[in-house]
Amino acid sequence: MDAFFVILTGSLVAVTCGILGIFLMLRRMVMIGDAISHSVLPGIVIAFLISGSRDGLAMLIAAVITGLLTTFIIQFIHEKGKLQADASIGVTFTWLFAIGIILISVFADYVDLDQECVLYGEIAYVPIDLWILPSGIIMGPRSVYMLGTVLLIVVITILFFFKEFYMVTFDQDFAVSTGLSVTLWHYILMALISLTTVASFESVGAILVVAFLVAPPASAYLLSDDFKTIIILTVFIGIIVAISGYFLAVYINSSISGSMTVMAGIIFAIAWLLAFRRRNFQKSLKIIKF
Amino acid sequence: MIIHVDQPVVEVHDLTVTYERRPVLWDIDFTLPGGILAGIIGPNGAGKTTLIKAAMDLVVPGSGFVRLFGKSLKEVRSKVSYVPQRRTVDWDFPASVYDVILMGTYPSLGLFRYPRKAEKELALDALRKVELEDFKNRQISQLSGGQQQRVFLARALTQNADLFFMDEPFAGVDAATEKTIIKVLQELTSHGKTVVVVHHDLQSVAKYFDWTIMIHSRLIASGPTSQVFTPELVEKTYGGKLDLLTEVAHLLQTEKLPPRED
Ligand SMILES: Nc1ncnc2c1ncn2[C@@H]1O[C@H](COP(=O)(O)OP(=O)(O)OP(=O)(O)O)[C@@H](O)[C@H]1O
Ligand SMILES: [Mg+2]
Fold first, then answer.
1. N or C, which terminus of chain B has less Cβ within 10 Å?
2. Taking 80 as the threshold, does the pLDDT of residue A85 lie above it?
3. B10-253 maps to which CATH number?
4. Could you tell me how many CB contacts below 8 A there are between chain A and chain B?
């Protein structure tokens, strides 16, 4: 049963991140996902200080605010400060992450958090951390509910606004010419990524979030030219990564998050070789440059 | 020579656009009648792309304005279609020809609605017009430059607009494709629609365009092609580079332009 919940948690994160990662990848913005997954840390700490707990709405709201703030600062430094996009991203998220770490150490007595946990998570504890109703009924692992909710939010948003996301991703100028706001959809995407990160940070940590944002979409992109197929493949690959990563960890008696990340890399390598064999040579080369 | 018209479909008024304090378009002022095929010509970097981007609110003008059908773009957006330069998008994007063409119907659908039979008919019709029936399910990464250009044109057709701005629809296409495209554009104008096209090939200007706009950062000429497409004005558009530079330098001294803050 424990194995089931660990794999379920990993899969929920994989699917959520994968769906969002497809849009990031196609807009060449994977690094922003990386940035946000780290920079929400100060938001998490402040929410913890205010609300005194790790779960609940305060945490989600704080994450969205910090995530959007990160996006805004990156944009601001890039446009007004005339710094290259990748440099603006690097400056912003390291700075925010550092603030988070300082906050943790200053308020160490009040905050039950540490940066190790934020980066690597503690997925093995998922089955122990249960949601228990006041009446005493045990509902199951807390993170499964949290991640399930976020997955639902992500899927519903993308389904409802697929047309808009699709247009903005493929052809920005055309999208703007029809009256869409590229900025608005950009911020919505970033808000969703922030939500995902904060919901996953305890269980899987920021590193695995980044791996799931990048590897399954990139693998799927190499294997297909059709948007819907890419979405389905991404979901499928994400789940495979979660399952195989878990068993790898058990087999070599190692970190679960680490093993899942390794599996994500291995599956990407396989996809790359398959694409190479399909003579999808140009795509294989291009993706290395991301 | 600038010839103005009454009741213009496109009115560009005292338009100035600057990128980082550098004027790219300077005091552009012209009007276009409806139902014509108009060509914008000028050397590389003359500001042709910037001009149609300004018309589509994609760049913010330093001063001046553009009115379409006598209104601001916001009020008439559904009647206006924009075809960007082909190279502005990633053609490795996972989409088929049909997917991209169908995208032209999205704006009229609004939120939460997806293409139904009517929209699909429209897309298939556009596909036929640009002679890409056989490529319907082809991935866009596997198209030639001319085919990509026709995909963009077909997407614009499904928008059912009355006014079209197209950035170099003839760039990198062969003679046969050029014929197909011009046929489509002429059919549009024959139905009273207005088409404004950025164009590079001076050989075909007189043959294709009812109206010609010549720019080189400033407006050199705007009027019926037969009247404005003269050797002197073409020379002025393409040859007068040195003159223009001295003119801008002069303006800077008299502080008509904002002084540089370095
Ligand atoms: N985003 C931008 N930032 C700064 N300068 C720009 C930008 N876009 C264009 N420019 C400059 O503005 C000038 C006009 O550019 P524009 O693209 O409008 O020219 P064009 O007439 O379309 O040229 P081409 O024939 O090469 O397409 C050029 O000198 C260009 O360098
Ligand atoms: Mg141009």
1. C
2. yes
3. 3.40.50.300
4. 68
